[in-house]
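Hey L., structure's done. Input below.
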Amino acid sequence: YTSYKLWWLGFCLTFVGEMGNFSAYGFADASSVAPLGAASVVSNAFIAAVVLREGFRWRDCIGCVLVVGGSSAIAATSSSHNEYLDPDIFLGYVESPIFLTYFALLMMTITVVYAFRERYGHRHVAYYILLCSLIGSIT
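Output:
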């Protein structure tokens, strides 16, 4: 695929788009910028359907609507005040009982879910979505 000009065009455009996304963090809060990065998922779905002639099913349409709705909800409810987070404040948050309880429960949940990988991992894509979502929730 690296010999195709269309692939290189897509790669370069993705790179430029991600550089723009990265630079946006210098101008706005991460809670506002990160959900807007989901727009690339929606645009890629439509580009794949139009340019690459891949099928676009109702399931894809529902997924795009959910991505746009979730991104909009996160952006609309994000905090508008800028709080400076220095390392001492961050460590205070990490050492708080609420976070430590959350982290312990999260690790137990990930361990239990991972234990079922042989049973459900080969048959259900939702298994990996759940596992990635749990791991990604820490960030």
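The first helix runs from residue 5 to 24. Helices lie at 5-24, 30-36, 39-50, 58-77, 87-94, 97-115, 117-120, 125-136.

-- N.
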